[in-house]
Amino acid sequence: MVDDNELERLRDIAVPAPDGEAKARAFAAAMQAFDLDEKISPVRQGTFAGLRLTERARMLWRDIMQRKLIATPAITALVALPIAGYAAFEMLKDHPPVVGGNGTVTETLADKPAAQKPALEQPAINEPLAAAPAKEKKTDADAETRANSQVAAPKPATEVDGLLKQEAAPESKRALQPAPAESGQLAAGDKDGSSNRVIMSMTPPSVDEAERADKAPAGGAAAVPASPPAVPASPPAVADSKLMVQPAPMPVDQLQPQEENRDRVENFKTNPVHETAQDPVSTFSIDVDTASYSFVRRSLKEGSLPEPDTVRVEEMINYFPYDWKGPDSTKTPFNSTVTVMPTPWNEHTKLMHVAIKGFDVKPAEQPKANLVFLIDVSGSMDEPDKLPLLKSAFRLLVSKLKPDDTVSIVTYAGNAGTVLMPTKGAEKQKILAAINNLAPGGSTAGEEGIREAYKLAQQSFVKDGVNRVMLATDGDFNVGQTDDDDLKRLIEKERKTGVFLSVFGFGRGNLNDQMMQIIAQNGNGTAAYIDTLAEAEKVLVEDASSTLFTIAKDVKIQVEFNPATVSEYRLVGYETRALKREDFNNDRVDAGDIGSGHSVTAVYEITPKGSGGEQVDPLRYGQAKVDNGGVANAGEYAFVKIRYKLPDENVSKLITTPVTAANEVSSFDAAGADQRFSVAVAAFGQKLRDEDQTANFSYDRIAEIANAARGADPFGYRAEFLSLVRLASSLGGNK
């Protein structure tokens, strides 16, 4: 027990004078500790009246996030915006930014330490940074609040070395940009991880700045740019002694950059008007492909008019089934019907409508099928409208196979491989399992896959049956033979074996339509574009007979116009199918094929002699004589010749049809419904190609003709056509 007297004596003892040496040691220790901690702050010091603005904003934000003031997340977001705006206004008023000559905010010497130390290596996004020392760990409730609410709501401002700067937003929305390489690093001088600063700019970065940021190294020293790129990231929160760097959300159009459209489509010029006196003969190969119509439909439904070169008018016309008169027996594989009618878009011209109908093989008479599915499983097929749709499409076809049919499956990516050896159609589950297990990945060795597919088709060749390779791809061949001419020669060689090839295109942005057309035409097959499962059902189920069973090959048409009755003519479509005049009688020249029940339509616009609708001035000198002069058949409009080969023959046969006044109808409305509907489709295709002949022919008039000639439409194809005309009308300004 201490005596009270001793306490009194101690109280009365005089305080010794301070020792100068002790003061010096204490001061040196304090300075050393100060230098080690490096807690130099460029922020002005002192006490304001009441709390600082930053403290007021922080406390208000904490209360909001703890739901003391706001009850719902929606109201929280609404309240956060004015708070952030008010904070930014006050901060900029107290700390006006230094504006450079280019209008961007720049840092001053007061905004950052005089010497920049090398930044630590940047961690990957969402990876934790190194933990701060225990003495620096935040333990207050505010830190926990920030950690728990970092993703829940955006922060009103971002701290930059003690200063608060707010990014200026555009009128409608804030275009947020991802943080550059430097922003995710620890700020220079913060070697202990106690301060992680994120720099924001008042203006978005330029393209050059963004490119430099993308190319910046992940670690090492980095110079601070005069105009730092915009960084929308929220301040890192402290949780479990680890600092997590998470970027703020960005608009979808910036998170997913626009993909380059690498579709390859053959460029071609519209057929010109020919003067009959100088060039009376027109020759072309028939075409039963439908890819163009599906491609046009997809473009319109996605809200844009199709590119003109994607519109092949003949493929649009032949997309629809027509009830043309067919042949009576297989001895004559098809029948032709010719109709002459007034042109709805030009009162001075007429249309010569040529319709061909193939013999329809009855289901009981269908030959055995030997099919090889050649499926592209390269990395470019990894899209919902490519391989997944492809698999669903081929499952539909498998369901229609007969027990005696044979199916093989070859896939190709970096190289080709056989997924399913020849398997009878009775084993549907085995075939379906092989299809279901397909997965994308790798490059595209299409040429190797084609060779392997033909090899398998030869192994299971069916005499007097259907032997066909069915290629399904987006057309992106990039390994092996990739040149169109090389692939053409390969297909021409293989078709001599009796194995034909059909091509089915999938997807957008990487579609090689040009290559698909070439190999289909030279492989005695068809080309179709499948954009929906409904289209897959049409091509592979409803039109399976015409797709698989060929009744005539190398079908060519040649029309000779009579200069006594026809001044001019032009063929609508078939630009990519044109043949030389001498090719018509050359059986070595390949042409299109007709399948069971297939219909083919061709339309000529002709200018009758003396109608006044001629576009070519008559010759002043040396004009050809076109009067009767006793010449036979002078009253005919034209003479139509069709050459074809039977599937197992190499010598062509000839069918001829003279076109006279007996083929003519008095008015457009007097023509049959199918003729009128096909003319409406022809007008629509020309309109989409922006051709001169239909420039003043409105979409409304096209829709009127098509609607009046709609007729029976069991599958809704014609109703869908009318909707496409309306879409094109709205996209094209109702022209």
Kindly name the structural category.
alpha+beta
Mean pLDDT across residues: 74
Biggest sheet layout: 6 strands, mixed
Helicity range: 25-40%
CATH class of the largest domain: Mainly Beta
- Inertia-based shape: elongated
Please tell me the CATH architecture of the largest domain by its name: Sandwich
Total of DSSP H or I helical runs spanning 4+ residues: 19
If you compute it from the alpha carbons, what radius of gyration comes out, rounded to the nearest whole angstrom?
39 Å
Strand order of the largest sheet: 13-12-11-14-15-16
Kindly report the name of the CATH homologous superfamily of the largest domain.
Gamma-adaptin ear (GAE) domain
CATH level-3 fold name of the largest domain: Immunoglobulin-like
The unreliable regions are 41-49, 98-258
Number of strands: 22
Beta-strand content estimate? 15-25%
| Whole-number tally of structural domains | 3
Measure the end-to-end span: 111 Å
Textual characterization of the structure:
- With 735 residues, the chain is α+β, with helices and mostly antiparallel strands.
- The chain has three domains: 53-255, no CATH class; 274-361 and 551-613 and 633-731, Gamma-adaptin ear (GAE) domain (Immunoglobulin-like); 363-548, 3-Layer(aba) Sandwich (Rossmann fold).
- 29% of the residues lie in helices and 19% in strands.
- The protein contains 19 helices and 22 strands.
- Strands 13-12-11-14-15-16 form a six-stranded mixed β-sheet, sandwiched between helices. Strands 7-18-20-10-9 form a five-stranded antiparallel β-sheet. Strands 8, 17, 19, 21 and 22 form a five-stranded antiparallel β-sheet that branches.
- Helix 13 runs parallel beside helix 14.
